[in-house]
Amino acid sequence: MNHLLRSHAPISDAGWKLLDDEARQRSLPALAARKLVDFSGPHGWEYSATNLGHTAELGVAPGEGDGVIGFQRRVLPLVEVRADFELSREQLRDADRGADDTDLGPLDQAAHQVAVTENVAVFHGWQNVATGISEASPYEKARLGESPSGYPRQVANAIDLLLGNGISGPYGLALGRDQYRRVVETAEHGGYPLFEHLRKILEGPIVWAPGVDGAIVVSLRGGDFLLDSGEDLSIGYDSHDSEVVRLYLEESFSFHVATPEAAVAFTP
């Protein structure tokens, strides 16, 4: 038995498989950060901190004399993220009988919320928890504007800026909801789709990134941004009564920006 306490839940093995598969399918499209940064792990629930490889001097260490100096290792603590939800026991029993229309809406919502939280932490930061890519980038943030016809020029300028600072490609592009929709919609008007035009400029992926405010061009050369996972997205058991099972979706992670110069952010 582990901390998720799944063996205490009134859910069959088939039911747990259904829930795990649903959580995976619903969260993957929205987990934009993992498509653009280095991912390490999962290292397990007990994994508590990311080694930064630096120390802070503590001054003279306690003891006799003043010839000993102390240094403290610097680490980045992991943050735990949890979203609670409830499922109908009757719906779960129907699923065990073979029903293919089980209402898993609360799980779907929790999966999306956790994915967006991760995206925001990585791309925009989390106060006192993580410095995001956008806030760490040293470049002035240009404005994308309302018309997607200007996106190729903006992205090309960003890549030129990165290359000028010795940051090689390929590159990826994280687009907020509205910006992604605008890019995709241009394919309906004929001509060369803007989506493909941007991909040729980037030589890398364009990612739908709920939680992103605007857009961010990121180098995919590796080693610049690290998402360190303790426990990956997992469903745990909280309690139940005769009608519902109370569950939660959780993960633990840290995020570290090693090279702030490796990304360019745009405001909407």
Q: How would you describe the overall organization of this protein?
A:
The chain is α/β, with parallel strands linked by helices and 268 residues long. Helix content is 29%, strand content 30%. The chain has helices spanning 13-27, 89-96, 105-123, 133-136, 151-164, 177-185, 194-202; strands spanning 38-40, 49-60, 69-77, 79-88, 142-143, 171-175, 206-208, 215-219, 225-229, 234-240, 244-257, 263-267. The strands form three sheets. Strands 1, 4, 9, 10 and 11 form a five-stranded mixed sheet that branches. A five-stranded mixed sheet has the order 5-12-8-6-7. Strands 2-3 form a two-stranded antiparallel ribbon. A hairpin with an 8-residue loop joins β2 and β3. α1 crosses α3 and α5 (151-164) runs parallel beside α7 (194-202). The protein is flat and about 60 Å long. The N and C termini lie far apart (47 Å).
